[in-house]
């Protein structure tokens, strides 16, 4: 590794600082080497200071697109689900298409929407230096593309604290309630988006208590690192797609780890999923997650047109139900049976072949996800560490790092999962170094190969999206004031993403499709006889990498065979 130039005159690096740096790396610099290493370190200091003194640069492709009336926002007047973060009415002055004209969309609050607060679901003092939620200064690529497609951005939806939670009790806005059953989770971390989509359906079905829930929406943009689009879609009875890795740019969105970062559409129907995907997919020249397989914008498939032309989508379709996903630890038998029976009945009714397949490695998927990502996740997601792939980070965010006692006290109550991620990174890095993570990355390729092999015999694979229906919300108060304990909160999330997280590391497209209802379980885990109401069940359809249209067509076949959420059974 070369040195640009010897330049130590303007550096404050002393011998004490040099030896301290060496001690932190567990070695002692000899007296004879001091001068050389001191000058090299001083030169590095001067080089970094010179770059730091440069005026900031923001790529013009992320400059805010002009909108009618500028960028204004407000807090929602009616919001008793806590699903809205901020409301707005943003319409491009000069859209380049009208495929989303007149449609209202909400954007997850980890996505940059210039002129609106960017909260990442957490406390303002943890994401800015002035103690206020920062105002986004750029439009994420997906934000720009949606506005160019004629959509109305109705605001940002609540997301979970640092997006590190598959349930909906951790946001700084407070817990997000499920529209189908108050005091139950919507799933996370795209909790608000799923709730706002389901709100209109629940109102139309006659679900009581939604008078003060406020405005609902047509479409939503979510983010997904382990299931954060698909889990809330399943719990709320809507559609949610995690596209193939690298199909949709992640530029301008707060991430957890480049290997598992996804953004994608959520909607009440399949056709809207296809239309939004058409609007946002394709290479942007900025996102290092994209590969040579990523289509250029002019080569992006018209998913909407392709879906509309598939009136015989079930004929010749081969569907494989992964056996292990039906019996993995923590799976509610009634959820597994709804998914299994719905897949068999409705795919076959559409002319498809359906059979069960044993894929033992699926049970290792979530463990591989954990070992492959947790060594660096805290610094990437919470500390603002720049990913090792070239990416355009967000100039308006200033994340607090290293952690301190105030941070611990805030997060132990709001989202103890963040503290767990911090502790896990420290421990795994110190005990295992890079070895386990490196081995896990090799196993990611093995896991991908296992799914690819199954997809040589089947067009799509099917699992329950989640092992259960939405659990009750915990008491958000501190334990010492009568609220739920950290352990109680941890118990709620165990196993939630076991069927979804594997496809984040392998990159396969995966879609939640609503497929029925089962009784909710009470806080004591009671049975149907004591259930307070009914909640949606989600089926996950997985396809070949870069065959997102195959997943959408399979979902259409399921619908053509009579599948879907069905009518609300009532309380």
From TrEMBL:
Residues 94-551 form the Amidase domain. Gene3D superfamilies: Amidase signature (AS) domain. It holds the Pfam family Amidase. It comes from the Eukaryota. GO terms for molecular function: catalytic activity. SUPFAM superfamilies: Amidase signature (AS) enzymes. This is Amidase domain-containing protein. It comes from Exophiala bonariae.
């Amino acid at each position: 590794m070369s040195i640009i130039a010897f330049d130590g005159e303007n550096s404050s690096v002393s011998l004490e600082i040099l030896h301290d740096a060496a001690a932190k790396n567990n070695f002692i610099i000899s007296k004879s080497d001091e001068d050389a290493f001191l000058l090299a370190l001083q030169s590095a200091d001067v080089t970094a200071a010179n770059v730091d003194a440069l005026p900031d640069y923001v790529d013009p492709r992320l400059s805010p697109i002009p909108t009618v009336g500028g960028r204004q926002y407000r807090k929602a007047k009616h919001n008793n689900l806590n699903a809205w973060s901020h409301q707005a009415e943003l319409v491009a002055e000069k859209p380049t298409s009208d495929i989303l004209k007149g449609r209202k969309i909400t954007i997850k609050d980890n996505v940059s929407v210039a002129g609106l607060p960017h909260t990442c679901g957490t406390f303002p003092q943890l994401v800015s230096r002035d103690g206020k939620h920062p105002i986004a200064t750029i439009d994420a690529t997906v934000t720009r593309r949606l506005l160019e497609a004629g959509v109305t951005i109705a605001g940002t939806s609540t997301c979970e604290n640092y997006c590190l939670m598959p349930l909906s009790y951790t946001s700084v806005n407070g817990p997000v309630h499920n529209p189908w059953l108050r005091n139950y989770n919507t799933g996370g971390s795209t909790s608000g988006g799923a709730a706002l989509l389901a709100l209109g359906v629940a109102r139309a079905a006659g679900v009581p208590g939604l008078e003060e829930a406020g405005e609902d929406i047509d479409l939503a943009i979510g983010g997904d690192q382990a299931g954060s689009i698909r889990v809330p879609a399943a719990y709320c009875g809507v559609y949610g797609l995690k596209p193939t890795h690298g199909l949709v740019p992640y530029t301008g969105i707060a991430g957890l780890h480049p290997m598992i970062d996804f953004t994608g559409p959520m909607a009440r129907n399949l056709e809207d999923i296809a239309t939004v995907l058409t609007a946002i997919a394709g290479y942007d020249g900025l996102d290092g997650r994209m590969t040579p397989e990523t289509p250029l914008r002019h080569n992006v498939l018209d998913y909407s047109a392709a879906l509309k032309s598939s009136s015989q989508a079930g004929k010749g379709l081969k569907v494989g139900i992964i056996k292990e996903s039906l019996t993995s630890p923590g799976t509610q038998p009634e959820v597994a049976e709804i998914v299994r029976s719905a897949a068999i009945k409705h795919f076959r009714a559409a002319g498809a072949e359906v059979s069960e397949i044993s894929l033992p490695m699926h049970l290792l998927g979530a463990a591989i996800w954990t070992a492959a990502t947790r060594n660096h996740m805290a610094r990437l997601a919470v500390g603002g560490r720049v990913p090792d792939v070239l990416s355009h980070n967000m100039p308006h965010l200033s994340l607090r790092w290293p952690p301190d006692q105030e941070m611990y006290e805030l997060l132990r109550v709001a989202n103890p999962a963040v503290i767990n991620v911090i502790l896990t990174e420290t421990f795994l890095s110190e005990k295992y170094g890079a070895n386990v993570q490196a081995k896990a990355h090799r196993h990611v390729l093995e896991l991908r190969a296992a799914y690819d092999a199954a997809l040589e015999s089947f067009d799509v694979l099917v699992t329950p999206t989640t092992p259960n229906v939405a659990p009750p919300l915990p008491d958000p108060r501190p334990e010492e004031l009568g609220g739920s304990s950290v352990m109680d909160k941890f118990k709620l999330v165990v196993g939630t993403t076991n069927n979804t997280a594997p496809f984040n590391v392998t990159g396969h497209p995966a879609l939640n499709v609503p497929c029925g209802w089962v009784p909710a379980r009470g806080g004591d885990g009671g049975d149907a006889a004591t259930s307070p109401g009914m909640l949606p069940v989600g089926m996950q359809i997985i396809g070949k990498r870069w065959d997102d249209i195959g997943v959408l067509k399979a979902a259409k076949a399921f619908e053509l065979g009579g599948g879907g959420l069905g009518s609300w059974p009532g309380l």
